[in-house]
Amino acid sequence: MFANSFELFIQRTVDGLAAGSIYALLALALVVVFRGSGQLNFAQGEMGMFCAFVASTLTLSGLPLWLSILLSMVVGFVMGVGIERVVIRPLEHKNPGGVLVAAIGLFLLINQLAVAVWGVDPRGLASLFPDGEDDFFRLFGAAVRWERVGIFLVMLVLLALLWALFTKTKIGLAMRAVANNQDSSRLVGIRVGWILAIGWGVSGAIGALGAALLAPQAGLSQALMLGPFVFASAAAILGGLDSPLGAVVGGLAIGLIQAYIVGYVNFLGGGMVLSVVFAIILVVLLVRPSGLFGSQRVERV
Amino acid sequence: MLTVSGLTASYGPVQVLQGIDFTVGDGEIVVILGANGAGKTTTMRAISGTMPRGGTVDFAGHELTKLSPDAIVRLGVAQVPQGRGTFSDLTVHDNLMVGAFTRSSKVTEDLDRWYSVFPRLAERREQKAGSLSGGEQQMLAIARAMMSRPKLLLCDEPSLGLAPIITQDLFARITELNQESGMAVLLVEQNANLALKIAHRAYVLDTGRIVASGTAAELQADETIQAAYLGV
Amino acid sequence: MAWPKDVRRGSAWHRVGQLVLFGLVALFFIRAGLTWNRSGIGQLTDMLLFATAAVGLNLLVGVTGQISLGHSAFFGLGAYTSAVLVGQYGWTPGWTFPVSIVLCFAVGMVVGLPALRLKGVYLALVSIALATTFTQLLNWDRLAWLTGGPIGIKGLSYLPPSWTPFDGRADLGKWFFWMSLVVFVICTLIASSMIRSRFGRSMVAVRDNETAAAVMGVNLAAVKTLVFGLSAAMAGIAGSIFAMKLTLVEPVVQFFTLFGSIFLLVMVVLGGAGSTWGPLVGAFIFVYVRDWASGVGEGNGVLGLFEGTRIGGLGGIVFGVLLIVIVFVAPFGAVGLLRKARAKVVRVLPRPPALPTVANAQEPQPPTTVVSG
Questions:
Q1: Which residues of B touch A (CB under 8 A)?
Q2: What's the ipTM?
Q3: CA C117 – CA C221 distance, rounded (Å)
Q4: Transmembrane region positions (chain A) (predicted)?
Q5: Which residue from A192, B207, C76, C293 has the fewest beta carbons nearer than 10 Å?
């Protein structure tokens, strides 16, 4: 009996970490944008979904999966940069409150664009990792699927890459400088506008990767990112919107909470997961209004 | 080197600079004096391109009013903004590195040089800039500006919030930099006495107009000006 | 006298102008109520109900500067309160309205409490949480005895009472239209008079500078909580009527979900946050532009082009693009745009101050002394 419930616990932990890894990825994408420009990109999820469709189309045309996903990340990057330059930046000078409405407009636009281009029939996207019936190994008796491990590793690699980007490259240094003080950044010769646009691009690429990891299990449809985006924003806010570490911790925590609630709290049932997650976040925010790892500072909305 | 003519600038409907003219020659230290609200900081921002402006600003044959702040830095005009403008969340080291954003070669060489000029910064290399004292932050701001290897350094009220002895030290450093490298300096100051000691020439700014100009010695000698504008 | 002509606020001409504007809008609605066909009136009624909820949200977003993406929950709570009382307990629909108002007001106050401590995107997320949690509660099987779960509550009806001039089922559309119009007008009057009162000015203080408001002795906590409550109550009564008009409630009704919250916020921003006419104009644009855009997707064409071509998703694309275009063209909302247009014809001057002003003395210019260098 004990062994059995322990196995179950391991199982749920692994599932939670895998789901949490994707939330962490998407939360990272939100954080990269927020640190630079103080904005929450509501169209983030839809951009990712769109890119996953691109990846799926590329694989159907015969490209290898990894290359398709890589190219879809490039598409995500270009989309991010384009949206920042064409819509967000001009609007921020003219009408800061309108950025939110524009983001909602983008949300609808991209979502329905996917409908127009690819139709409403669900599609598939193969997984980067072995995800057949037998592709698992046993850990303390629990079946750990390789795909879950793969997703977790991708998240870690991405985190390392982002860390390297921010601390080891000139662009990364400029991104941190812009996040800290835009006026001084101009005075040292940084093109602030482009740095912000690159932030949106990086975020778009990460979003594309997140969607590509999610699509094999969730099924590729226009609704792919609706739920995950809400969980990811919750993760970003829980961790603190300007903290990459916070995004990862927040994402994993929410994945785990989700897995444990579904598994252990029978009274609530699966349908109430999000509510419980939000209740926990609310409590955290009331104690720390800028999230677990976020810095207290003035932000724009 | 720098020739400013008819420079105007406004905050919304309020015109702060009424069209001012001045020059900074090669290797010169020029100071603009004036009381609070005279338009000193606005002059600096108008040159560095961080606010909209009119008139002409010629720097070594380039028209700065048509350029963006980053292009102006690339031409060799660095600004130490009022209030220092250090990146408080970044370490001292990163602050200096970001100062060299427009350059790609010999950055470490310069880094070592400024660490040796300002040993206090070397000691606090890994500390966040926000945790430094006012004087240290001012050193950092100057060192950061120097990292771009400027031909002209704009210094906006470096003495602000510093004890007189630290200000004296700071001004001595600025003189050294000027003498060693022949870098021109445009200094904006409220503290007329200290500034006139290191400057070659000076202008007096009052409500957006240049009301007096001359060599530092002349202005120091002119009692009317001292009494009317420099609060002595 | 050259254009633009000057009109002083509160003067006879200013009042005439206001009356004419008000009269034209009233005329539009009265004419619509008397002559439009059933589906036209139905759509106009929906628009008025969304506008009423938007008036509530406008009070919050526009006046206190707090963002809420949770107002679909109050709209839905109002709707479900009426639906449960009518459908499960056999109440007369009209009597459920006050219950809705009070309940939404109370829940709004409670929800407003965390809003005291949170700002900006953090508050936005908590309100998103409210909207999603509400939908999950509606679907929750343990509450199905009350809410009907995923199936909802169907077969509601609210026939016009005998004291009204409406003739039963035949006039159902008109009955809901006039009722919604009256509720909308009442909510707008309450909101706009609040904005002008001392209380309202304190709200603006809260929006512009919290510390200053605190120094001035404005009780921030009380103001914010109360506004949240009122704002919720207005969304609630709109939801109640909406449910009765729809004759059913179910969790998938768009305006009970997060989308509803987003749409309400879009209306407020489109109309012009903080302005009295904003919610009406915003809701009008939203409902009719969306309708037109989905018509484009179904083959109505754009300006005679693409007629008969059906493209899936085109309606959403057109609407999304329009939203973006509108925020570019009208940075302060449609009302801001109209004001700008009006400024070309008439310039409204503030009321004359009580005391005569001292003409700004020209400051003496110092002599320009140039020491030759």
A1: 48-50, 68-70, 73-74, 78-79, 81, 85-90, 94, 97-99, 101-102, 144, 148
A2: 0.88
A3: 9
A4: 16-34, 99-120, 149-167, 188-214, 220-238, 245-261, 267-287
A5: B207
